[in-house]
Amino acid sequence: MKIKVLGGGREVGRAAYLVEDGSQRFLLDYGVNFDERDMPRLPQHVRPVDVSGLIVSHAHLDHVGAAPYLYITGRPKAFSTKPTLEVARLLTMDFLKLNAAVIEYDMREFENLYDNTVFLDYGETYEEDGFKLVFANAGHIIGSSITYLETGSGRRLMYTGDINDRETWTLPGAETLETGVETVIVESTYGGRNHPPRHVVEKRLLEIVEETIDRKGTVLIPAFSVGRSQEIAALIASEAPYIEVYLDGMIKDITDIYLRYRKYLRDPALFNKVFETVNFVTGTRDRKKIINKPCVIIASAGMLKGGPSVYYLKKLHQNPRNSIIMVSYQAPNSNGHKLLEAGEIPELEVGRVNARVEWLDFSSHAGQKGLVDILSRYKSTVRDIIIVHGGEEEAFSLREAILEELGSDVRIHVPNTGDEIDVA
């Protein structure tokens, strides 16, 4: 068996891994990331005719953003959960609004992908041409999956995708299957560090919110539309129901998908109750009304790249009574990163920020200990571990931690994009 790293080698995003075993070729994700000029970077090319099956682990663009390219001239069979492609449709539409000039597909190709997808629920086994495929909950965002693949020759592989071992207000933690996998492809976004306990971070956020409301200020929480927004809204609405919460941007459309696929949630009844009490912003009039109101505004986008969060930032940043709480990953060179580092964003005409600015670690990725704990469940059978989807420092730090836990009998690979690995 060979595994070709078409993207995601010693880098975050652009995930794309081609598993070849005899005549079978399975493509695990096909995503994009962005360069320093914020231009999309594609994974290495693979011909649609050479893909026996495309497996989409979850809806984020760094895992599915290049997949429609395969459906311009081809129709390979794809596999995913239903909410994954429902969310991916919205993210792809937004992606094309910003990048249509440099991307050679449009929504017709995404719909071709959708129409050629076999939708599986967690725990459901799919068998064809001698291979078996099962998904398990990865705990990252709604519908995110750990992939268990047994090829026609009997090789057993697990691909974590993006994985979160910790329970959140919206999702259960990752739920691995007890199966004898020999090869694991594991993400390493936070392979070199551990996250603080979730309850500590949640308590800190509630403290900042209540302090701000007490001084008649407004709290802005820029957040990813998928996952983070719903989690933060559920936390505040459940633990501080006396505080008004407003949500703005694509968050509403994503939340509608969460409500349609409640069986994927940790506590569907709680989620339904929460989203009967929060408020969705419907237009300019609502925005003007709430910027001077003691309340919490959760707005997309999480890195202040665009969307309503930028509007609110411009209106709220000068008042020291207000607070801006960043709860999402801030990529280098992103507006959110500039806010945290410099306290201003000249590109957005946002000068010195007088509002309180905080960043809290609400990551939806497992840290080093969580990743090692997951891998150790397969200690008796795993022979090859391939570390992907992380910067070089994070990936090699995870490698050392795995060696310490599993020993040197396991072959651990830290490939670059473009590398090919022979799995014995």
From TrEMBL:
Give the record's keywords alphabetically: Hydrolase
Gene3D superfamilies, per database record? 3.40.50.10890, Ribonuclease Z/Hydroxyacylglutathione hydrolase-like
Where in the numbering of this chain does the Metallo-beta-lactamase domain appear?
13-193
* Name of the featured protein: RNA-metabolising metallo-beta-lactamase
Q: Name one Pfam family in it.
A: Lactamase_B_6
Q: Can you provide one Gene Ontology molecular function annotated for this UniProt record?
A: hydrolase activity
The protein's matches in InterPro entries, at most eight in alphabetical order, are given as: Beta_Casp (IPR022712), MBL (IPR050698), Metallo-B-lactamas (IPR001279), RibonucZ/Hydroxyglut_hydro (IPR036866), RMMBL (IPR011108)
Concerning SMART domains, the annotation shows: Beta-Casp, Lactamase_B
Provide the Beta-Casp domain boundaries: 229-339
